[in-house]
Amino acid sequence: MLPSFRKVIENSLNYTNLRRITFPFIAAVALVADALASFFYYWAEGSLPAGIHIAAIGSSVLISIPIYWATLYLLKTLEEKQEALILAQEHEASSSHELKKRNLIFHSLLHTSISMQQSKELSTLLDHTLNDLNQIFPDWGFAIVIYGARETSVQNFSSIHLLAEEQTLIIEGARSLSSPYELTEKLQLVTRNAYDKKNRHNWMFAPLSGSENKKLGYLIIKQPLETSIHHDVVSLFVDQLSVTAENRLLLLELERLANTDALTGIYNRNFFQKELDSEIAKASKNNNIAFSIFVVDINGLKRINDTYGHEEGDKLIIAVANLLKKSFRDYDVITRSGGDEFVILCPNTHCDDALGVLNRIRALEKNMTLAHYKGGNTHQIEPVRISIGVACSTETSPENVLGLADENMYEDKKRFYANNSKYR
After folding, report:
1. 141, 159 in Cβ contact below 8 A?
2. Where are the beta strands (DSSP E) in 56-166?
3. d(CA 413, CA 258)
């Protein structure tokens, strides 16, 4: 009780409260002085003249007013000094915090710049950037989307502090990122359902732009509602990431050109393996990023070589390569892996999509023929037939997709030769 009473007294003894009760206080002092003077005078003299009241009240008022106003002035001065001291301490603390924040930002930017120069893989570069952003904004969530050859596919994706459902929405909504408003509403709905009202978030989409304003992707920010966005900091990271990502994409394109098969103009096995390793790493990290593999083998190539010669066999290989080019997307990795075998890596492709591609290949193959020449102008029209195996990373582990596709191709080849022995 005593500490609480003392706290009440301390809180009431301030300039504002005392000034508010100036006149009641002086009146109370005057009444107390009059009562005491009257009592003592009557006790000493046995009578009470009217002048005693006037003298007591007047004296008490004349004495109390200067003392009271001096007290008020002293309290006001002390409060002003205390407020100035508090403001100075807050400013010093704020300045110290801001200085630490700036140092952290500059350190993170320097670290990001170094990481960008050292990271050979684009996925490693994205991870380093997100970790540095997390150092500055530990309570925020981030994702980076890098487009493939088209803005409808995600070539690279990395995130930190995002829910699995949020990651899925971003990956599946890659096409919507060109106009992210609809995707923002979906993400906000997921966030509201996942968190209580005290943990609401805003979403921001910062575009990554390359030369000639080519859109490379987005830096996506999940920001707690009560915090303010640091546009200058985000802009610095976006600028650094845009330049470095574009350079990495250009290097990848040059590497693609340097890893092509001389006969068909499609990729060779060495390039395929590098791309496959990258897709396995991405799919192992995030199972929302699925990939599919086709293994294609030409039926009857040996018979064509033996009957018409190897030049005609090469024509058949080129024809099948062209068939595959028509069937797959620009950013699918179509590869000649051996004499009569092809493998195709399809990033961002689930099993249903792969089956749609398989049906498209079979429809083109059905009516495909090739004229083979054997001396002079004599030629023979031969049907082009292929065996195909398909597998997807959602039906087996990413490391086993190629093996499963290869097994499925050999099963398809067995069925074909069982019914078409002349192709052997």
Report:
1. yes
2. 141-147, 154-160
3. 32
What is the greatest pairwise CA distance in the chain?
Answer: 158
Average pLDDT over residues 154-169: 88
Q: Which contacts (CB < 8 Å, 24+ apart) does range 421-424 have?
A: 422/303, 423/299, 423/300, 423/303, 423/385, 424/300, 424/302, 424/303
| DSSP-based three-state secondary structure for 208 | strand
| pLDDT top residue among 308 and 198 | 308
Residue 142: count other Cβ atoms within 10 Å of its Cβ.
Answer: 23
Per residue in 31-53, is it b (16+ CB within 10 Å) or e — as a string? eebbeebeeebeeeeeeeeeebb
SS3 111: helix
Q: Does 9 have pLDDT greater than 60?
A: no
Q: Which two tokens stand for residue 376?
A: 């002079």
Per-residue confidence (pLDDT) for residue 1, from 0 to 100: 46
Q: Label residues 219-248 b or e (16+ Cβ within 10 Å = b).
A: bbbbbeeeeeeeeebbebbbebbbbbbbeb
Nearest residue to 320 via CA among 368, 358, 367? 368
Full set of structural domains in the chain with CATH: 2-90 (no CATH), 125-255 (3.30.450.40), 260-423 (3.30.70.270)
* Mean residue pLDDT across the chain: 80
Of 6-10, 18-22, 366-370, 419-423, least confident by mean pLDDT is 6-10
In angstroms, how far is the first alpha carbon of the chain from the final one? 103
Residue 21 has pLDDT above 60, yes or no: no
Best CA proximity match to 298, nearest among 418, 416, 419: 416
